[in-house]
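Dear H.,

Thanks for agreeing to be a second pair of eyes. The structure we're designing against is below in token form, covering all 484 positions.
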């Protein structure tokens, strides 16, 4: 509960109509959640225009309406606040309503196409090992120190973010590590937040169903760094060809990390095997319980981010050596002498990284069998590219269903098959049922072989026609090998 005038100080207003001396019980942008004396923000969304629901919000008890255009009919019992950007106003209002929680801890945002979840989660785990109370906002789950709260989006809405940050502050958290998606930046969900740092992992083809062009997608990532304050740090993967562009206009203190170029934080892979790597980071050796070149980048990012936050390098390295893989990210299992790997890779670049990491470790006396699909109602352009990548880097391929959502899975597989060159036809099977595809992969595998199941990772469901059915790749692998 807040005085309206208290939470208006940070937002840009064009006009205030009515009584501004009101009490606000809660801020909402969904009219269905409105209760008496709530404030409703009419946000123009991608699919729904909040302005269409102002009357419904008032009927449900809203006494304050924030909108971009004054309605034709105004009610004396309601205060109308006209703003230039309602999405931005929502973030600013939410931050003020919860007493600006991002200013009371150190909030670090992680953005990029791949690696966001791993970097944010490992930073959370690392700082817990250093003895701090820590929060996490990620694709897999949100955490308030050791309390788990399920996640529904990569980045929650502005009200949820500030509510969670407020709970973190109340729980005594010193830090919060947060995945920042391009959608969240574009939709102003991070408006009003004060970041202590930002980390860029990499950028490649993804989310073009939403952003339409790669340039728009790239600029959304860049905007996050453009908004960082000068007191913050900006840490970028300078091996990515867009790593320096991302940092171009930031006011924050710039740092780079790399496996290939001179950088503030430089890493070399000295030894690699399934389940472990020996790295040299800034002339210090450290064994880690993660695999793959992409994970070497992730670990260098968390090392650099921790040093930017002022921690002792040897304490950081000691904590890094004790970290475990993130659920569903190159998670390695062993069955009957066969190595099975579950990974969330669902973009061409991520899939290529995982497959190249496996090929960099294997002896080539074994077969690499890959099971992969593509999600429905998402970027269709990447489907044939995914198939092309997997065919080039695997010995046997099973194309299957992922989360078809409301699309026909056969149509998705047709799109993927467009990327299969004739030379690879003999190595490719098309099995629409994902459970059956995993069973077949297990049946095809012999001692020493490697089975990769990619695309869903930590997800414990399969979404078909609006219904989420229980489905866990790791559990399906276990069942398949038990019945083999």
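And this is the sequence the design step returned. I haven't edited it by hand at all.
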């Amino acid at each position: 509960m807040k005085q309206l005038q208290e939470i208006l100080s940070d937002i840009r207003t064009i006009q205030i109509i009515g009584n501004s001396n009101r009490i606000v019980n809660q801020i909402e942008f969904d009219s269905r959640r409105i209760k008496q004396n709530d404030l409703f923000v009419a946000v123009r969304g991608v699919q729904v225009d909040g302005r269409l629901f102002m009357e419904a919000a008032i009927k449900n008890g809203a006494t304050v309406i924030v909108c971009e255009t004054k309605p034709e009919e105004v009610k004396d019992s309601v205060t109308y606040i006209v703003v230039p950007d309602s999405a931005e106003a929502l973030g600013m209002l939410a931050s003020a309503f919860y007493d600006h929680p991002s200013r009371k801890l150190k909030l670090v945002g992680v953005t990029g196409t791949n690696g966001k979840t791993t970097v944010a989660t490992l930073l959370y785990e690392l700082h817990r090992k250093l003895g701090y109370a820590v929060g996490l906002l990620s694709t897999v789950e949100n955490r308030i120190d050791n309390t788990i709260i399920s996640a529904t989006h990569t980045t929650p809405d502005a009200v949820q973010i500030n509510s969670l940050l407020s709970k973190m502050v109340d729980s005594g958290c010193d830090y919060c590590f947060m995945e920042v998606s391009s959608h969240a930046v574009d939709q102003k969900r991070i408006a009003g937040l004060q970041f202590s740092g930002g980390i860029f992992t990499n950028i490649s083809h993804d989310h073009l169903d939403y952003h339409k062009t790669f340039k728009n997608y790239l600029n959304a990532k860049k905007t996050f760094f453009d908004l960082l304050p000068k007191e913050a740090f900006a840490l970028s993967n300078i091996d990515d060809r867009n790593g320096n562009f991302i940092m171009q206009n930031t006011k924050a203190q710039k740092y780079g990390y790399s496996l290939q170029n001179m950088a503030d934080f430089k890493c070399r892979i000295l030894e690699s095997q399934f389940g472990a790597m020996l790295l040299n980071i800034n002339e210090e050796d450290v064994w880690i319980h993660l695999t793959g070149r992409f994970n070497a980048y992730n670990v260098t990012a968390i090392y650099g981010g921790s040093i930017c936050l002022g921690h002792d390098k040897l304490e950081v390295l000691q904590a890094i050596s004790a970290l475990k893989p993130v659920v569903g990210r190159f998670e390695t299992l062993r069955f009957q002498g066969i190595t099975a790997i579950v990974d969330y890779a669902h973009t061409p670049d991520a899939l290529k990284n995982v497959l190249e990491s496996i090929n960099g470790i294997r002896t080539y006396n074994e077969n690499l069998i890959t099971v992969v699909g593509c999600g429905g109602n998402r970027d269709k352009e990447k489907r044939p590219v995914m198939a092309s990548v997997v065919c080039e880097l695997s010995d046997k391929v099973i194309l299957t269903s992922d989360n078809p959502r409301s699309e026909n899975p056969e149509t998705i597989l047709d799109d993927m098959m467009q990327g299969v060159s004739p030379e690879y036809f003999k190595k490719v099977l098309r099995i629409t049922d994902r459970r059956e595809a995993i069973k077949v992969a297990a049946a095809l595998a012999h001692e020493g072989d490697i089975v990769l199941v990619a695309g869903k990772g930590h997800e414990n469901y399969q979404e078909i026609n609006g219904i989420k059915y229980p489905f866990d790749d790791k559990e399906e692998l276990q069942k398949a090998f038990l019945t083999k």
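Two observations from my side: The radius of gyration is 24 Å. The mean pLDDT is 94.

Warmly,
E.
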